[in-house]
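Researcher: We're teaching a course module on how sequence relates to structure. For the next exercise, students receive a sequence and then see the predicted structure as tokens, so they can try to spot secondary structure elements on their own. Here is the exercise chain.
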Amino acid sequence: MPSYALLGATGATGSSVLRHLLYSGSSSDLTVNVLVRSKSKLLAAFPSLDKPRPSVTSSIPTIRIFEGDSTNPDVLCAVLQDASLVFMCVAQNGSPMGTTLVQNTAAALIEARRRQAQPRGELTVIQLRSASLNPVLAVQVPRFVHRVVCFCLAAGYADLRRACVLYEAAATEGLLQYVLVDPPTLHDARGTQTTGYRLIDTTDMKDKENQRQAICLSYADLGVAMCEIASRADELHGQGVGVTATGPVRQTWAVLAGFLLEGGLGHLDYRYGRENVVVLGVCILLLLGGLLYSIKA
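Model: And here is the predicted structure for the students to work with:
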């Protein structure tokens, strides 16, 4: 009987993965160990998890809920018990300077693997990353736009990079395997309707046409894509796999703009100091005001 672990099941990505595992109808013999910080929040989003499993013949997988911190190796030892694959969907909104959540979770997971009794079964980590960190996909975005996004989300991207370095070292050590999932901008966090997606092989340098990535993808389609990647993990170990939409996406740019603005201001504050940032902002406003006044005059 296969067993998965899912970290971050109450977030937009994790809940999309869990929803597909629960309702796709192809996971009857599957056990999913779900780690969340708040069990009540998970049950509010998925009330059916609080009810008895229908029957032995049900197509719904067996769900085991663990409550705790993803950076605690003791908790992860229990969550990873018998698991052959981990969906790593732990993240936080925005990109606050100094964030280390993803790399700390990676370090705790690797420590938990070291503590597991020998012989260990093989474990594959499906780590959500970003197309901005995949050279093949990032080059498709206008350079100025890419630089602005990387500046605004610098802290979150640095956290992801460090986590990936840890996974690479752990794979070399033989502790685990990993696959990196690189979506474009993600939209419609509360949506549940899928409209279609396609995986992108970023290792085939001759097939440029099929490496093209749309700029938007829904969380719902990302969840399904991550489940497909899980089913094909053996052929994708060590790769960065792109995901692109093939259908319409309900776009929520206002939410993303808020995250970019918050991250950008935080990065400016960190590099130049809040007072200097405020002075610069006032100068820009005065300059724009002067230009508008001169145009009207």
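Model: If you want an answer key for the exercise: The chain has one domain: 3-251. The CA atoms of residues 47 and 145 lie 41 Å apart.
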